[in-house]
Amino acid sequence: MLASRPDPCRxxxxxxxxxxxxxxxxxxxxxxxxxxxxxxxxATNWGSGADAPQWIEIDLQQAAxxxxxxxxxxxxxxxxxxxxxxxxxxDGAGDYVLR
Length: 99
Hints:
Layout: E1 24-26, E2 56-58, E3 87-90, E4 93-98
Antiparallel strand pairs: 1-2, 3-4
């Protein structure tokens, strides 16, 4: 009997992407829709097409423990410092809280 081995073509186990495929809305989507931010394709992104401040909201659709947030920033022009804030709220109720 052969021992079970992991499939070399499968991605290694890692953290679950809670945002993958969830509903996303944004302050503006002139260059690319908010859904691109949660489609799992690193070649696509959300593009507001507008100056700061802009925002994107991802509805996880249920309460979840979030261990980390991975933010991939693509901006034009690329020079200059940027600041990003992550706000959270539970069950769509109450005020957002800066974490």
